[in-house]
Design brief:
3 helices, globular, DUF4397
């Protein structure tokens, strides 16, 4: 027979065990909730990223500062600083001469958006600190490309250089036409492969000022960035850079403005049309172009249309002449007296 004291001890032990188990049951969900909270914190809002281009050919090697924090040192002219992740918002980008006597090569601010990919370039001439440099900002919003095709565009970052046209070396076909400084063309989709491209000044018949061998990989987007050449005998050189791709519906649609000036977002109809044009300039074309033909631009299409118009005019003239002849014959028959 169990004594009262022993029974009390057993009851106390069972009670403590239940409390302990109950505590575990209570603690379990609490820990799980904490894990969920940590997971939510890990799921941050989509960010943005910016790459920088040192496109000042006579400039010094520079240290790179983003929002006052040095991220890279001694970047030479013609080099590209790979994408740096930043939160959406207004950011400061400064390139400072790495060695004495110093000098600022770039000092600008750019507004970035969620899921935005941007290129910010320092362009112009340094001239020992007495020259004039200018920031250029581009929106790198290439959309996804099929595996057997490549997307390519041209960015003109040579301050003071003429408009340039890009043609295929093999056929003379125009790929990009009359690209102005500070602009990036629309991405064009072409079959993957290796291409030799001629960059010409002032049109398809202009002088070749540079030739570039472009290796365009399938499923990728590429920017050909024309920058100033360090060699005084050359007008420019071309840097080939791979751009990120993504769904079109997630891409920002406003081209950034250097110095932190956001694109005008008024209700004015003309402004809305301008913003639409800026968006189109950076998106990837839906249909691939045929690079085996010379009519890769709208030139031939326009010429064909003009030829058709001329043919229509000739046909109309012939019809008019025929109608006039018939009218003359009728007038003659009417004027002839009966015998």
């Amino acid at each position: 027979m169990v004594s009262a004291r022993k029974r009390s001890t057993q009851v106390l032990a069972i009670t403590l065990l239940l409390v302990a188990v109950g505590g575990l049951v209570v603690v379990g969900p609490t820990l799980a909730q904490e894990d969920d909270d940590e997971a939510d914190e890990d799921e941050e809002e989509p960010g943005s990223q910016v790459r920088l281009v040192h496109a000042v050919p006579d400039g010094p090697a520079v240290d790179v500062y983003i929002d006052g924090e040095r991220v890279l040192q001694e970047v030479d002219p013609g080099e590209v600083i790979d994408y740096q992740e930043v939160e959406p918002g207004n950011h400061s980008f400064v390139l400072v001469a790495a060695e004495e006597p110093g000098g600022v090569v770039l000092d600008t601010r750019v507004e970035t958006e969620e899921r935005g990919n941007y290129t910010v370039a320092a362009t112009g001439q340094f001239e020992g600190g007495d020259g004039e440099t200018e920031p250029v900002a581009l929106l790198d919003n290439a959309t996804e490309v099929q595996s057997e095709f490549a997307a390519v565009r041209l960015g003109h970052l040579v301050r003071g250089a003429p408009d340039v046209t890009v043609t295929l070396n093999a056929t003379g076909g125009v790929v990009f036409e009359q690209v102005t400084f500070g602009e990036a063309t629309q991405y064009k989709t072409i079959p993957e492969g290796e291409y030799t491209l001629d960059i010409r000044a002032d049109g398809a018949d202009g002088d070749v000022i540079a030739t570039v061998d472009a290796d365009l990989a399938g499923g990728e987007a590429t920017s050909l960035l024309a920058v100033g050449a360090e060699d005084e005998n050359e007008t420019l050189q071309v840097l080939q850079q791979t751009d990120p791709t993504g769904p079109e519906e997630l891409s920002p649609d406003i081209v950034p403005q250097p110095n932190g000036d956001e694109a005008d977002d008024t209700d004015d109809e003309e402004t809305a049309e301008d913003e639409t044009d800026e968006t189109v300039e950076n998106e990837t074309e839906d249909e691939p172009i045929d690079i085996n033909e010379t009519d890769v631009t709208e030139e031939v299409t326009e010429e064909t249309g003009e030829a058709e118009d001329e043919a229509d005019e000739e046909t109309d003239d012939e019809d008019d002449e025929a109608a006039e002849d018939e009218a003359d014959e009728e007038d003659t028959e009417t004027a002839t007296p009966e015998a």
